[in-house]
Amino acid sequence: ALSVVNGSESKFIFKKMDDEFPYTYIYAVWVNPENPQHLLFGGALNHEEQPMQLFETFDEGENIYQYSEKFGLENPVVADIIQAGQFPAILLYDKRRDRVKLLVYTL
């Protein structure tokens, strides 16, 4: 699950609900410094086979898009998301093939 906390109030941005999204271990979160309602976040499932677990929201979780593109990896794990200049950079790790890929996301 992923939550935002403001003072004594909290709100879920992402959590397992029915079959809409899989149970994802969140390893990385990026908040757009110019628009805090825009988030990229991701991680991995607790399985050998890894569909892409990279998500994006522009409205603090009201609508969430799950990326399906694996960017040339068989079992991508979102290991980290960092600020790289004015854009976020997403570090993907392929568990099975022991490969790493760095993607720069352009807004």
Describe the structure.
- It is a single chain.
- This protein is 0% helix and 50% strand.
- It is an all-beta fold and 107 residues long.
- The strands form three sheets. A four-stranded antiparallel β-sheet has the order 3-4-5-6, with no helix packed on it. Strands 7-8-9 form a three-stranded antiparallel β-sheet, with no helix packed on it. It has a two-stranded antiparallel ribbon with strand order 1-2.
- It has strands spanning 2-6, 9-14, 25-31, 39-44, 54-57, 65-67, 76-84, 87-94, 99-104.
- It has one domain (2-104).
- It has no helices and nine strands.
- A hairpin with a 2-residue loop joins strand 7 and strand 8 (87-94).
Name its key features.
4-stranded antiparallel sheet, mainly beta, 3-stranded antiparallel sheet, 107 residues
Strand fraction equals: over 45%
Mean pLDDT: 87
Strand count, sense and barrel status of the largest sheet are: 4 strands, antiparallel
Give the CA-CA distance, first to last residue.
Answer: 25 Å
Q: What is the chain-wise order of helices and strands? A: EEEEEEEEE
Secondary structure category: mainly beta
Give me the count of strands: 9
The amount of helix comes to under 10%
Q: Count of helices? A: 0
Dominant shape: globular
The assembly state of the depicted protein chains is single chain
Number of domains: 1
Radius of gyration: 14 Å
Task: List low-pLDDT spans.
Answer: none
Biggest sheet: strand arrangement = 3-4-5-6
Summarize the structure.
By secondary structure, this protein is an all-beta fold. It has strands at 2-6, 9-14, 25-31, 39-44, 54-57, 65-67, 76-84, 87-94, 99-104.
